[in-house]
């Protein structure tokens, strides 16, 4: 998954991006003033560029929560009929089970990706502490 590697790289370097942005602001008052003007623009909803840098990582943490909610509200497969109860006509679509299974697989995948990103970020932060 090449797009996963790009996302992973972004998330790992996101903290560093905030530091670089701050050092650029400190070194360049014109840039700082321009970024402040952009922040005050109504389309920016008073969000600073550093806040926008956080969005991809925040989004990644919300995917498992969203998928878990979808799974919760997805109808479970129709139960298997009880042999001791008089048979009744029920309609069970073969896609019911496949749909829930697909959502559950998506949840597991989102959780694995989030765990990999978190682990990589922790490793990176640990190496940075050792260097300091």
TrEMBL record:
Residues 1-120 form the DH domain. Keywords: Cytoplasm. GO terms for biological process: positive regulation of Rho protein signal transduction. The keyword tRNA-binding does not apply. GO terms for molecular function: guanyl-nucleotide exchange factor activity. It comes from the Eukaryota. One of its GO terms (cellular component) is cytoplasm. Its main location: cytoplasm. Signal peptide: none annotated. It is found in: Cytoplasm. The keyword Cytoplasm applies. This is DH domain-containing protein.
